[in-house]
# Entry
Amino acid sequence: MDERRFLIVLWLWLAAHAVVRVLGSPVLGVDDVEQAIFTQSLDWHYGFRQPPLYTWLLVGLYELLGPGLAPHLVLRYGLLFLTAVALHRAALRVLGEPRLAAAAVIGYTLLPLYGFGVHQGFTHTTLQSAFMALTFLAALQLLERPTAAGYAVLGLCVGLGTLSKYSFLLYAAALALAALTRPEGRARLRDRRMLLALAAAAAVVGPFLAAAHREGFSLAALAAGTVGGEETGYAGRVRAGLASVARAVLEYLSPAWLVVLALFPRAWRPRLPEPGPGCALARRSVAFGLGLLLAGVAAGLVGYLKQRWLSPVLFLAPLAFACRAAAARALTRGRVRAFLATAAALALLVLVGRGLYFAAGPLWGDWKRVHVPYPAWAADMRALGLRPAVIVADDEHLAGNLRVLFPRARVATPRYAFYLPPPPGQGGDCLLAWRADSSADPPPRLLAFARERLGLAPGPGGERRVYLRAPLLGAGSEGPFARLGLLRVRCPFGAR
# Structure
């Protein structure tokens, strides 16, 4: 499969997923709702739980395309396209044959994260993947032909990767350690032009680091709270960490490892010919990444992992295994065809499964968040003459979806109490919003947040309750229904 055919297949695959999403539901899903809320302002940080680059890119797309599902899909699938193209270019350099390079990249669809997960959420992981692929490609180009421009590009990729997700630093460290194991890698790292790479990375990350320092942000504290686990004793934490790493690795690589075990058994031989520089960099980067992770477990720092958090450690695993299979002469034409057919069948199964996920409510009564009738509620609010200037929503899903349906309103939520949007630039209503399916009264945390953080509180003659009832998306006029509660309060912003 030459590069042109690969790009056509890639475009068709991504376009099919985008079409399924557009036809399935207009509702923003997990992770996207968070980003929709944050796009109300361009800031140096959004609470520091994640770096800000993804939000910055989305802010630009909101300005270009307007709020809604479209900018989220453009960014998501644009990044996936960029990731696949960069990986393919890297695989061509490493494996030397277009057919094998295409098979190696298509193999990523056998990983749950890339075969399914990135279509559902994982915004920052998707951005991180793009810069991991670009960084590896830049490193390969430097190994082949060191230039000042190449070093600058490598530094830019590392800097932007760091702004995509903090765990990118683990990937960069493993890649650097892998480069040190080869003579050509050591020569590139000792080159004075490496200062250009460091300067470029510092120029990209520096302003964010300055903002983090001013706010007292600690990456170590964030990491401890995320992967530290619940065990208090050292021995218990190490046992939990080892079990968590083993489980996460198995989950991350399934079902890919089963497919390659069945189709390329010779590639599992322990002793294989020494690979070229590119293959060595990929294979040893994975090994060093796992080594650093296990060192964290041994130090009692890592006690809990989710499989998707292993992306910076195992990102190059499919390419590394393709190198082993090539070295074992296991990549025969028939076996590669069988591998591609298996990957295509699973990709089609995932695509059909995503379509059924959206259709599950209307077909079988299995209603999801994507079926919540936000558009109908927004239409009813307009029909009642409500003109929201400020909306304080009880949860992030309600807040994010109302944010795109009322783009001129300022939307906040106690779910992200650290984030307050700029004051509204227009007059209108100040509203508290909550799901009223189980309780007609606004939740106490919503009232407290609105009062303490925004100065919004019900007052005599200044409040008005409204309840909106609409059928779930795809349910028809007979329901089931979902209920939204609204409370209009006095506005301190010059709104009504």
Q: What stands out?
A: Residues 3-352 form one domain. Strands lie at 388-393, 410-412, 429-435, 464-471, 481-489.
